[in-house]
Specification:
Layout lengths: L7 H24 L4 H28 L2 E6 L2 E8 L8 E6 L17 H10 L3 H9 L8 E4 L9 E3 L4 E4 L2 E5 L2 E2 L5 E4 H18 L5 E4 L8 E2 L6 H15 L9 E6 L17
Parallel strand pairs: 2-12, 3-7, 3-10, 9-11, 10-12
Antiparallel strand pairs: 1-2, 4-5, 6-7, 8-9
């Protein structure tokens, strides 16, 4: 189980329930006289009930599929699901720093989120997507450099965190590519990328609800942090949102959609510690 049996959040919830029960029983016992022979029976039954309640709280914490947090007076919902089927006005999809669109298992894997996006919406018509990206008025301001030595894929590199809006999708430059077209990031890049990403979100969201995946979870090469977990990435996403001081005004929200097959790796309850 991802939430331990004696997790402090479980204990806090249970103590709250116990306080309510204590008040109720104290009031009842003021007006009801219990025979001595029944006290042991009632006490044993109460103890069993409390144990069952605690176990129930613990099981619920492990089985829950979503949690809502308040960050900077904004609502952030973290949930398990599929980004493409999520109800949201805008959805972020991570691309590499070149906004490559070549799904050939070398540059982009067909099983990655951006590979699935390209196949889902631009299968056989990738040139249309390339034209939209190349004609975006904002992207020229975000050019980092040009890699003329690159033989496969595009040559223009953009600042990490840069967003290109395509209909209701936010294509986001979110990983560096090495000479072998392998995605990687240093942890400082990741944090800077997230901060820039939230700045870009503030530029485009216009009061709409934004859904995003656990950005970076598909990158196996975090230099210096090879064993970073999805839980840690999720917490960094929330922390950088908190630091950014962006505020989503009601009814717009931020939804972080964790791929449902990673449910056993994420402790939603612990994210409550990040609230502000």
């Amino acid at each position: 189980m991802k939430v331990s049996f004696f997790d402090k959040k479980i204990l806090h919830t249970f103590y709250g329930f116990l306080s309510v029960i204590s008040v109720i029983t104290s009031i009842v016992f003021l007006f009801v006289e219990i025979e001595p022979k029944n006290k042991a029976l009632i006490g044993g039954g109460t103890l069993i009930l409390l144990v069952l309640v605690y176990i129930g709280i613990w099981i619920h914490a492990n089985l829950r599929r979503s949690i809502k947090l308040t960050i900077n007076n904004s609502e952030v919902e973290v949930k398990f699901g599929d980004l493409f089927s999520e109800e949201a006005d805008l959805k972020a999809v991570a691309f590499n720093e070149y906004f490559d669109t070549m799904v050939d298992e070398k540059v982009i894997s067909s099983t990655s989120l951006n590979g699935i996006y390209i196949k889902k919406f631009y299968s056989g018509n990738v040139n249309t997507l390339d034209d939209i990206i190349s004609s975006d008025n904002h992207l020229p301001e975000m050019i980092a450099s040009t890699n003329e030595g690159r033989t496969i894929g595009k040559k223009t590199q953009y600042k990490l965190g840069t967003i290109c809006m395509v209909d209701d999708y936010l294509l986001t430059a979110f990983s560096r590519f090495d000479a072998s077209n392998k995605a990687y990031l240093e942890i400082n890049d990741y944090i800077s990328c997230l901060l820039n990403f939230w700045t870009e979100i503030d530029r485009v969201y216009a009061g709409r609800t934004v859904a995003l995946p656990v950005l970076g979870s598909g990158i196996t090469r975090f230099k210096g942090y090879e064993n970073i977990s999805d839980q840690e990435l999720l917490e960094l996403i929330i922390l950088t949102f908190k630091v950014s001081r962006i505020r989503f005004t009601f009814p717009s929200t931020v939804k972080i959609v964790v791929w449902q097959k990673k449910q056993e790796k994420i402790n939603l309850l612990s994210l409550k510690d990040l609230e502000s």
